[in-house]
Amino acid sequence: MASVYKAYDDRFAREVAIKMLHQHGLDDDGTRSKFAQEARIIAALEHHAIVPVYDYGEHEGQPYLVMRMMLGGSLKERLAVGPVGLEETAVILQRICAALDKAHQHHIVHRDIKPANILFDEDGVAYLADFGIARLTDHTQTTTVIGSPRYMAPEQAKARPLSGQTDVYQMGVVLFQMLTGRVPFDGETTEGILYQHINSHVPLVIEINPTLPPPV
């Protein structure tokens, strides 16, 4: 839906990230609406574990968001080298779940919890990003399957109404990956992965990573 650019804000002498809607979305009222909705959602939440938005506007008809520049990379990049330590996993989990609690209190479902959307600042503190496909729970009566298949909740795969539980499931998949270095369900096709989310039992993390303590 958009591209993100590194930029410099000379008024406040700081680096920022500018998210700009792709050109092909400019003539699509639905896409423009989703982009504007993302700005409103983040502004309404104002949570310490959600990447803050500094500004929203248009330049020559192209909408943009100005956000805090996250200099510490993403959880996806960290997981590329293997599992995350148990203590760090707990810290990340607490922060991101607190952000989700705030969203759910406002009847907002993120719908796309995955390592690429968990970013770190220069001090290694985790933040939740990308509310681009977030929806109000009152308006999620949809038959459109949207999200990332490896992290998709069963009700998403079935195109059924969503709730905060959808994000909890997705966060569970991310937790599984932080502890084991892999997702619980994978495959060569989207259909195959979604079938597993709906029909298969989640593997035991301790069988994949025997170094984990039994309570995990």
Return the CATH architecture of the largest domain: Orthogonal Bundle
* Low-pLDDT runs: none
**Beta-strand share of residues:** 15-25%
Q: What structural category arises from helix and sheet content?
A: alpha+beta
Provide an overview of this structure.
By secondary structure, the chain is of the alpha+beta class. It has 2 domains: 67 residues, Phosphorylase Kinase, domain 1 (2-Layer Sandwich), CATH 3.30.200; 134 residues, Transferase(Phosphotransferase), domain 1 (Orthogonal Bundle), CATH 1.10.510.10. It is built from 7 helices and 8 strands. The chain has a 4-stranded antiparallel beta sheet, with helices on one face. It has a two-stranded antiparallel sheet with strand order 5-8. Helix 3 runs antiparallel to helix 5.
